[in-house]
Amino acid sequence: MGRGRTFKLALFDLDGTLTKEKSAWEYIHRRLGAWNGYAEKFQEAFLRGEITYDRFCQLDAEIWKGMKVLELERILREIPLYDGIDHFLGYLRSKGIKMGIISSGLSFLADWIAHRYAFDYAVANELGAEDGVLNGEIKINVHYDRKGEWVQDALQKFNLRKEEVLAVGDSPGDIVMFQMVGLSIAFNSLSPQLESLATLSIRSLDLRDLIPPLVPYLGPPED
Question: Residue 210: which residues within 8 A CB-CB, separation 6 or more?
Answer without folding.
Answer: 88, 168, 185, 187, 200, 202, 204
